[in-house]
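Q: Protein A?
A:
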Amino acid sequence: MALETLLIWLVVGAVAGWLAGLIVRGFGFGLVGNIVVGIVGAFIAGWLLPRLGVHIGAGIVGAIIHAMIGAIVLLLIIGLVRRR
């Protein structure tokens, strides 16, 4: 994996995690946590959205929206698990 690819993943993950943290309030994990939530969210969205028939445009904005949707799903699941 090239250094540029890794940096793009980190930036997309950070932005998506930060946006998801703003939407789902009360689950801030800091910068590193937001990056992890955003990257894991991108994998979740990559698995979930095609099965639901949802296709988001390409490019960096599409990647951020894609990862943000997955990060929101991840934060909602974390919220449900924490309540129990």
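Q: Protein B?
A:
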Amino acid sequence: MERQWNDSQPIYRQLRDRVVALILDGLLNEGDPLPSVRNVAAEYRLNPITVLKAYQELVDEQLVERKRGRGMYINVGARELLMNAERETFLAERWPIVHATIRRLGLRPEELLGVGNKGNKKER
């Protein structure tokens, strides 16, 4: 995980988002344990309460399960749940902007796929 934090949102939220990205990218899989709160706090020089708050959000979203005395684990179906939410967000919020830009610039599908760009060779 990245060690830099920004001022755009609370650190616990950024940490939560980084764990979500690891799940979406397949670097954390269903059944995998999350690093302990103490380890993350020490490694990233964070207050353990900040890490716990990030992890609690993941529990509240049913992405992570707390196993008493054993730690926290990625729930079965967490990646699919996140993928569905990301798809909905993309289609509702980002795609209309991208689509409008494509239309405004008069881009053709071949250009979007890189076939019509100079320097790109058609893959076979």
